[in-house]
Amino acid sequence: MAYMMNAWTVTRPGPIEGRPLEFVRLPVPEPGPGEVLIKVEVCAVCRTDLHLAEGDLAPRRPGTVPGHEAVGRVAGHGAGAGRLATGTRVGVAWLRSTCGRCAYCLRGAENLCPYSTYTGWDADGGYAEYVVAPEDFVYVLPEEYPAQELAPLLCAGIIGFRALSRAELPPGGRLGLYGFGASAHLTLQVALADGARVHVLTRSAQARRLAVELGAASADDAYAEPPEPLDAAILFAPVGDLVPTALAALDRGGTLAVAGIHLTDVPVLGYERHLFYERTLRSVTANTRADGHAYLEHVARRPPRITTVRYDFDQADLALTDLAADRVTGVAVLMVGDSA
């Protein structure tokens, strides 16, 4: 007889007000070859989960369990797995697997692998009491931090870290952050630690207050003009209308990195106003495991202040509703099981 667990599934993708998530009972998954079974403690809530629930990100399988920022402990092993002992605290992130053989993987760009798979999209994720993941793609996490402070690092932190790299901010440069949710509030702290001056532009007054508390030089409305030209900018808000706004705010030679898997349509850009003087527009696609390890090493040296909003496990639909309405300042986290 199979053991059962509680989980959330995306049953009817559509507007979050229509309750596309369903709280269900599912069999505890069995780890396959090279995989580990993880008992979930906490799973952070990402805007990508919202895109999946609402259908902006087309589901790749019916009834998917979302969630790709899960912290838990190894509870079982599939054939060939065993590097991580039972009870090891680990994190499950967005990138679930790659082929390891294509030109992209071989040159260290596994985030571009055409055969890559993703947690909570191609396979069930962390909105469940148990999740299965390839052993080679989970991160060993420290014991000394609460699980709810570790979970946001696994996507919000790692993606922001890669986005900052893609933005090519010069030492001591001027950075603009458009949107100030889970990822941006962690990215701000990395940039400040590296000596940057950061300007936050977001529609949420509460988020602007948090940005200033964390050390931002200024915080204003998303469409406002920053107080000085920017050397680099990162667009976290999934709003295509902000692309020309951010490009126009760049100084000569500046770079705008768009961090997100979904973006509404971008208006027509004016070459002279938005791109001339060697301004650069570039995307951010997932992350590599090297990005993840580099970011976690950075965190170990300079632990960030992580602002979380806790939700009980049976409130996942409420967490996504609040996220859609910009009522979450920092990171929403689901308290799935026992956590430190």
CATH architect. name of the largest domain: Alpha-Beta Complex
Q: Could you give a short account of the major beta sheet?
A: 7 strands, mixed
Work out the strand percent.
25-35%
CATH uppermost class of the largest domain: Alpha Beta
Computed over alpha carbons, the radius of gyration is 20 Å
CATH superfamily of the largest domain: Medium-chain alcohol dehydrogenases, catalytic domain
Question: What class, by secondary structure content?
Answer: alpha/beta
Q: Average pLDDT value? A: 96
Distance between the termini: 31 Å
**Helix segment tally:** 10
Number of strands: 17
User: What is the CATH fold-level name of the largest domain?
Assistant: Quinone Oxidoreductase, Chain A, domain 1
Short recap of the structure:
With 340 residues, this protein is α/β, with parallel strands linked by helices.
What does this protein look like?
- With 340 residues, the protein is of the alpha/beta class.
- It folds into 2 domains: 4-154 and 307-335, Alpha-Beta Complex (Quinone Oxidoreductase, Chain A, domain 1); 157-284, Rossmann fold (3-Layer(aba) Sandwich), CATH 3.40.50.
- 25% of the residues lie in helices and 28% in strands.
- The chain contains 10 helices and 17 strands.
- It has helices at residues 47-54, 103-106, 147-150, 156-167, 182-193, 205-214, 242-249, 271-275, 289-301, 316-324; strands at 4-10, 21-27, 35-45, 70-77, 89-92, 95-97, 117-118, 130-134, 138-140, 174-178, 197-201, 218-220, 230-235, 250-259, 280-284, 308-312, 331-335.
- The strands form 4 sheets. Strands 3, 4, 5, 8, 9, 16 and 17 form a 7-stranded mixed beta sheet that branches. Strands 12-11-10-13-14-15 form a 6-stranded parallel beta sheet, sandwiched between helices.
- Strand 14 (250-259), helix 8 and strand 15 form a beta-alpha-beta unit.
- Helix 4 (156-167) packs across helix 5.
- The longest helix has 13 residues, at 289-301.
- It is globular, with a radius of gyration of 20 Å.
- The mean pLDDT is 96.
